[in-house]
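stage 2 :: seqdesign
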C-alpha cells in the first residue's frame, strides 16, 4: 500500500494477457495461438500456476480450433474482454502468437463461444458471435459450467451439452448478419457486427442489468 497526499492507496494489480492476476488466482485459462496459419489454437483450463500452454496435461485441453475458425471470433473476444477490463481499471490485452493467459471467468466465456463453432459451418460463426454477445456474462458462465461438467474434454465434441450449445448459438434467430471478413481476417476497414437493439437474451426473463463484472472480474455472484 502506498500513501499519496496523505491518503492510502492500494497498489495497482498486475495482470498479464486478458485480466489474469497471477498473484490473485491460480485458476485461469491459456489460449495457445500458433505461429503457423495451418496450426490449431488450443485453449487450456489451468488449475495450478506452474502449468501453462502446451505443457498442460491433455485432460485440461478444453477446445481446439483451426485458425480459420479462430480468426472469425478473435476480434469479438478481444473487443468484449477489453471493454470490460477497461471499465474495471485493468489494462487491456491483445492476442499474440504463443500462450495468452486469460482470467478464469473470461476464459469460460471464450471456451463457450469456441465450442459453439468448433463443428459448425464456418459461415455461422458471426451468428454465433451475435448470440454470444446477446448473453449476459452470468449466462455464459452458467452455460460453460453445465457443459464442462459432462463434455468439458476437448474430444467430447458434438455430443450432449456441447451439441446443444452449438445449436443455441448458431441457429437461434438473430438480426441479419454481415459476412464481411473480420479485422483478424483482414486487418483493414472491417467492423465487428454489433448486437441489434431488438435482439434479446437467449434466457428470457433473466436480469438485463449491467453486469457486476466491471467492479470485480474474479468472483462469481453467490
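stage 2 :: out
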Amino acid at each position: 500500500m502506498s500513501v499519496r497526499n496523505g491518503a492510502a492507496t492500494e497498489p495497482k494489480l498486475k495482470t498479464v494477457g486478458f485480466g489474469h492476476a497471477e498473484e490473485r488466482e491460480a485458476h485461469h485459462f491459456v489460449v495457445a495461438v500458433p505461429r503457423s496459419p495451418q496450426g490449431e489454437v488450443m485453449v487450456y483450463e489451468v488449475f495450478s500456476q506452474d502449468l501453462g500452454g502446451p505443457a498442460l496435461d491433455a485432460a485440461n485441453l478444453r477446445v481446439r480450433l483451426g485458425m480459420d475458425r479462430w480468426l472469425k471470433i478473435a476480434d469479438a473476444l478481444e473487443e468484449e474482454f477489453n471493454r470490460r477490463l477497461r471499465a474495471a481499471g485493468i489494462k487491456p490485452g491483445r492476442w499474440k502468437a504463443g500462450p495468452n493467459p486469460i482470467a478464469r471467468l473470461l476464459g469460460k466465456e471464450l471456451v463457450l463461444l469456441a465450442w459453439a463453432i468448433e463443428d459448425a459451418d464456418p459461415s455461422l460463426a458471426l451468428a454465433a458471435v451475435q448470440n454470444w454477445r446477446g448473453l449476459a456474462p452470468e449466462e455464459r458462465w452458467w452455460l460453460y459450467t453445465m457443459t464442462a461438467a459432462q463434455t468439458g474434454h476437448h474430444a467430447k465434441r458434438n455430443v450432449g451439452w456441447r451439441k446443444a450449445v452449438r445449436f443455441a448459438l448458431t441457429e437461434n434467430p438473430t438480426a441479419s448478419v454481415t459476412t464481411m471478413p473480420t479485422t483478424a481476417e483482414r486487418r483493414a476497414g472491417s467492423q465487428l457486427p454489433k448486437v441489434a437493439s431488438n435482439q434479446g437474451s437467449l434466457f428470457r426473463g433473466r436480469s438485463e442489468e449491467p453486469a457486476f463484472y466491471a467492479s470485480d472480474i474474479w468472483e462469481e455472484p453467490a
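stage 3 :: structure notes
- The beta strands are 2-4, 7-9, 28-33, 40-46, 61-66, 98-103.
- The chain has one domain: 13-200.
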